[in-house]
Amino acid sequence: MHFSSENTGPDADIPGGVQTVSLPEAGCLTAVGLSGGVDSACTALMLKERGCRVIGVTMSSWNNDLPLPPSKNGVRMSCYGSDEKLDIAQCAAFCKEHGIEYRVIDVREAYKTYVLDYFKREYRAGRTPNPCVHCNRHVKFGALLDGVRDAGIDFDYFCTGHYASLVRPNLSPAELYRTFALEEEIARPAVCEACESGESGHPLLISAAKDRYKDQTYFLHRIPSRVLERVRFPLSGFTKREIFDFARSRKLASAARSESQDFISSEYFDIVFADKASVPGDIVDLDGKLLGRHRGIEHYTVGQRRGLGVSANRPLYVHSIDVHNNRVILAGGDELLSQGLQADSWVWAGGCVPSHAFTAEVKIRLASPAARARIVPLGDGIFNIFFEKPQRAVAPGQSAVVYLNHIIAGGGIITRSL
């Protein structure tokens, strides 16, 4: 298996006026983010076989600030922890075996600020954080790249093992919105003057990968277009099965390793939040009836069922978190359905902000399929989203990502359900 014109993205789903971008060409200097997993290892080896000059780079985020236990049987328990040295050792061994230069880049301060501190702050505010989204924006495609450049590596491209595709429209962002808005009877979205005048150019946009089951675009939506210009996702045109086949054919040790873990396993949350005493409070139903006591709102999230510590004659889930009164509110499954949501802190492809309503598809979490919805601007960077069919467990703090024909138009942070 090797890169070819057929392995550059899900071309069958790319609409007219948009083309997939070319992969790094032979001879160019390509930095590859290595994690120790099969996806990043295959990315590096494929590029080397393509004729690229490859440098493997791994970010070191562990700050020795939490007493997290070591891994069991040499298998990492989470993305953050003292056992990151296992990944570094595996990456170093892989690079040595295949004649690839290797560097470890210190991103500890950025990781603490944008991931760890953010994670704790959001949970304590009664919201559900999305550490992968912020890590990608500020660390993997931010501090890591800054560190690579500071190390004197003037790379032509930065590549990772993410399952995502990059496309460049032949249309301006304004024309793109008008072309791909899904519903004719709703006015095509007007956009800012800079977009209308073409000043924003034709930026790279993130599109779904060939393997829809592994598509990771939801986690990448906040990466600025200026950063994407030197980024490539070489696995966009492959399925996960094909990548494992490639790894086995090259006898890569990573083919037998487990997949990436969560940021920090939930079983270690007590350690993560030990810097401040938890404040217990009431667990109530939608009518305010007392059902039990919680041990601190940072241990709960919308949609949660397990570990609630209450008994009932029907399944109960976390419906919402009342920060002001320090209460966790439970309800039945049907009561978790929402007609819509409100979101702020938006980023839009090419900086092109819609100023009129349009219809698109919206994902409210990685595991949920994109749902048809109407996106309505309210001003001051706030948008309402109204779903064609109610969605379950809309969680403040999570991302709402807008897709037009599988291409990311923008994404914001959910502030409340409607």
Give the mean pLDDT: 85
Largest sheet: 6 strands, antiparallel, barrel
The CATH architecture term of the largest domain is 3-Layer(aba) Sandwich
Report the span from N to C terminus.
48 Å
Order of helices and strands: EEHEHEHHEEHHEHEHHEEEEEEEEEE
β-strand amount: 25-35%
Tell me the overall shape: globular
* Strand neighbour order, sheet with most strands: 13-16-15-14-17-18
Low confidence ranges: 3-14, 183-200
State the CATH class of the largest domain. Answer: Alpha Beta
Which structural class is indicated by helix and strand composition? alpha/beta
- Beta strand count: 18
* H/I helix tally: 9
What fraction, in percent, of the residue positions are helical? 10-25%
Q: What number of structural domains do the residues give? A: 2
CATH-defined superfamily of the largest domain? HUPs
Structure overview:
The chain is an alpha/beta fold. The chain has 2 domains: 5-163 and 212-256, HUPs (Rossmann fold, 3-Layer(aba) Sandwich), CATH 3.40.50; 165-207 and 280-418, Translation factors (Elongation Factor Tu (Ef-tu), domain 3), CATH 2.40.30.10. It is built from 9 helices and 18 strands. The strands form 4 sheets. It has a 6-stranded antiparallel beta barrel with strand order 13-16-15-14-17-18. The chain is globular, with a radius of gyration of 22 Å.
